[in-house]
Specification:
152 residues; 6 helices; mainly alpha; 57% helix
């Protein structure tokens, strides 16, 4: 949220609303919608009794194993980008730490590692889950899937 403080404390006479800020808001909105759709799809999937012991591979979850985190990351970087035109000091750019630390937390501390470990514990013996893990991007959506054996 730190980058948004620069927007709200900027001088109102010269808002310097640039295309950069508009691009940031577009990224923010896309991330918010992407995360919301991913969370909704998982909620609907889990609400069905026949999916009780299954993992989701449909919708956005067919393009990424953690599409909600992808949306979350975009959301925070979008907010930072939207605030850049309002920066009045080079030190304001240190607010990049907010989205960066959130990304690092999701990728390496609390988000992905915990869920990947839990998934392996629950479905690690299921060939379909192993295939899903090997052919679906962890974070960044990939419509055609991934192939770990490719060199490019």
């Amino acid at each position: 949220m730190l980058p948004s403080l620069f927007i709200f404390t900027a001088e109102k006479e010269n808002p310097r609303l640039a295309l950069v800020s508009l691009a940031g808001w577009a990224i923010y909105a896309f991330g918010l919608v992407f995360e919301t759709i991913a969370d909704y799809q998982k909620t609907v999937f889990r609400s069905k009794p026949e999916n009780k012991e299954k993992f989701i591979t449909s919708g956005l979850w067919s393009t990424s194993r953690h599409p909600n985190y992808f949306g979350e990351i975009l959301l925070w970087y979008g907010l930072f980008i939207a605030a850049v035109p309002y920066f009045s000091s080079p030190f304001n750019f240190l607010s990049i730490l907010c989205p960066t630390l959130t990304t690092l937390q999701l990728l390496y501390l609390s988000g992905v590692p915990m869920l990947e470990k839990a998934g392996l514990k629950k479905w690690g013996d299921d060939p379909k889950y192993v295939e899903y893990q090997n052919t679906t991007s962890c974070i960044i959506p990939c419509l055609g899937g991934i192939n770990k054996n490719k060199t490019a």
